[in-house]
Design goal:
Length: about 270
């Protein structure tokens, strides 16, 4: 079973780094078709060409192959006789060599590079237990350009969280390789809001009226692809919520660039 997890990790990273999910490609294609600004439309078309070349040649979509993040759904009846985190880390080390991936994981103070995208706290694994005996592993590599723009705001309960989101995106979007996908964590505690925002990215696409209205407000900013103007500043928004303290209103925004990379492997 350990070997299966290692192999699934490598396969998931390989696909996530060299292709995009169909629904993400569809969002970019639809945006290119309706974009009224010629320069913005060209940038969207370049993105589609970039994906086509990367997928055909089996090369990473972007020079920033990201930090290794995984969402694992493990059956409650599944009993493991090995460390799941170490098996996934082994897969990351192999993937770093064979894909190859840029070594991105460094010590936060010394900046010493681990050289294999692992180390303390890496890979980042979000673990959920589900019914059954199977295991589903989703690779979700996260680049620094978009992650660096992410934030948590501790608002007053009377504040409008959506005004805060729109104003924050207006200030930061151009530096996050738009058009964006935005995961929003609303409520909880300081750290729970951030995790909700990451989960929101994993649980896309969002289709609620609230999410679509927020998407419309953000696209009306006119920031556009690569921050050079246009109709398409964001391609998708998902909101995850949790009850919070009566005296607080945490709001987290996890930015994701246009290359919303992910791939899933299922182990039975």
């Amino acid at each position: 079973m350990k070997d299966k997890v290692v192999e699934a990790t490598v396969r998931a990273l390989q696909r996530a780094e060299t292709s995009l999910p169909d629904w993400v490609l569809q969002r970019i294609e639809e945006a290119a078709a309706r974009e009224s600004h010629p320069l913005a439309r060209h940038h969207l078309q370049f993105m589609l060409e970039n994906v086509a070349v990367a997928t055909a040649k089996g090369l990473p979509l972007c020079q920033d192959t990201g930090l290794a993040v995984f969402h694992v759904q493990m059956g409650r009846e599944l009993i493991l006789d090995f460390s799941l985190s170490e098996a996934i880390a082994e897969g990351v080390r192999i993937a770093t060599r064979v894909i190859p991936l840029r070594p991105n994981a460094v010590h936060p103070q010394t900046r010493q590079n681990s050289e294999d995208n692992t180390g303390t706290g890496m890979p980042d694994i979000i673990l959920d237990y589900v019914d059954g005996r199977g295991l589903k592993l989703t690779a979700f590599p996260k680049g620094a350009g978009s992650e660096n723009m992410s934030l948590v705001g501790m608002l007053n309960p009377a504040d409008d969280p959506f005004d805060f989101i729109v104003k924050s995106v207006a200030k930061r979007a151009a530096n996050a390789c738009p058009p964006l996908f935005l995961g929003i964590g609303l409520g909880g505690s300081f750290d729970l809001a951030a995790r909700l925002a990451k989960r929101a990215l994993l649980n896309m696409p969002g289709e609620s009226q609230e999410e679509l209205q927020l998407l419309e407000r953000i696209n009306s900013l006119g920031i556009g692809p690569m921050g050079l103007g246009g109709d398409t500043t964001a391609l998708g928004i998902k909101i995850e919520k949790a009850f919070c303290h009566t005296a607080s209103l945490p709001v987290a925004i996890n930015f994701q660039c246009w290359a919303n990379r992910s791939a899933t492997e299922v182990i039975q």
